[in-house]
Amino acid sequence: MRFGHFLRRFAVVFLLLSGSAPAADLRDVTVEQEEKRYRLTSVTYFDASVADLYRILTDYNLFTEISSVFIESRNIRAAANGKPGYFTRMQGCILLFCKSFVRIGELTLTPHREIIALADPERSDFTYSRERWLLQADGDGVLLSYEFELEPSFWVPPVIGPYVMKRALRAGGADAVDRIEALAQGRKPER
Q: What is the pTM of this model?
């Protein structure tokens, strides 16, 4: 699996999907880089209820359904501070360099409104990894604003690495939105 392919699917985590008669609409996506840190922002309309979309995005046991980049994913025991935890293991390659990537962290939840996933750099392969989903009812659906900021602690090849990461993050969101919507509607997402 190429590293670009991995990142395309990884951007998902969180924007993701593919189902029959998709109504999900990825309205805006931006990827920026500053030094070693990457930031993806997007706005997507989902034909689903706020409660159903929130349920899917907080259930890490479903993330392997959202994207094949997730080799393993699950909710884990709450931290000492009471915040729920999550674990993901992803796999990807760039050129001949292949690696498995782990993120372990905690969730800050405002039910049916906001989800923040912050990885613990001591237990993850990222110096920094923060995702934020903001859900807002919009007619019969949901407008989801998504922010994903990450800084890998692993080596990213200079010159081609940043280009591949930015391109993969942008493309990955579009691949994932239909799968998320399918799950929120109670359908099995197509692969």
A: 0.81
On whether residue 190 sits in a domain, the answer given is no
Inside any domain, residue 75: yes
- Taking the C-alpha atoms of residue 60 and residue 67, their distance in angstroms, rounded to an integer, is 11
pLDDT in tens, 79-134: 889 999 999 998 766 666 667 889 999 999 999 999 999 999 999 999 999 999 99
| Total domains in the fold of the chain | 1
CATH number at residue 75: 3.30.530.20
Sign of the four-CA dihedral 158, 162, 164, 165: positive
Residues contacting residue 94 through CB under 8 Å, at least 6 positions apart: 2, 3, 4, 156, 157, 160, 161, 164
